[in-house]
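Bug #77: duplicate submission created two jobs. Keeping one. Sequence:
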Amino acid sequence: MKPGGQRRKGHDFERQVANDLREIYDPPELVAAIRAAKPAERPALLKRSLVRRGEQGHGALEPDVVTPTTWWIECGNGATVDPLKKLLQAKQDAPRGRRAVAVVHRKGARRCTATLSLGDLATAVSEASDAGLRAELLTCTIGYEDWLALLRSARMVAP
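Kept job's structure:
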């Protein structure tokens, strides 16, 4: 890989995550305008967006992707990226009241993953359910050991 290639790959992935989140948080007409814009017009349109890549020079003052939500988003893209380490980084960097999530793409994988605490997932599902989402349509993967611990805890409180 060329010098700086890893960094560029990471930046490109952060841009992709930001683009995906614009579909959710920005007005549809702005999203369409950004998509259709010529390269010279794009920066001015991106300044109007509610979603952007974090300023890397700010260190831990901003997440990798900034949104108008409480999510602190750390991104990772590569063959050896560890989602749990990325989540730990997000938790350490996130100010109080922010919810940490690690969005990761592993080399060769077909899909990206979002790794977050079960409590934050439960809160997000509750909020989405209040807005009409049918939670049973979501898929969630957790570590097998974590699932066993969950079952052990549930068994302790079950009648």
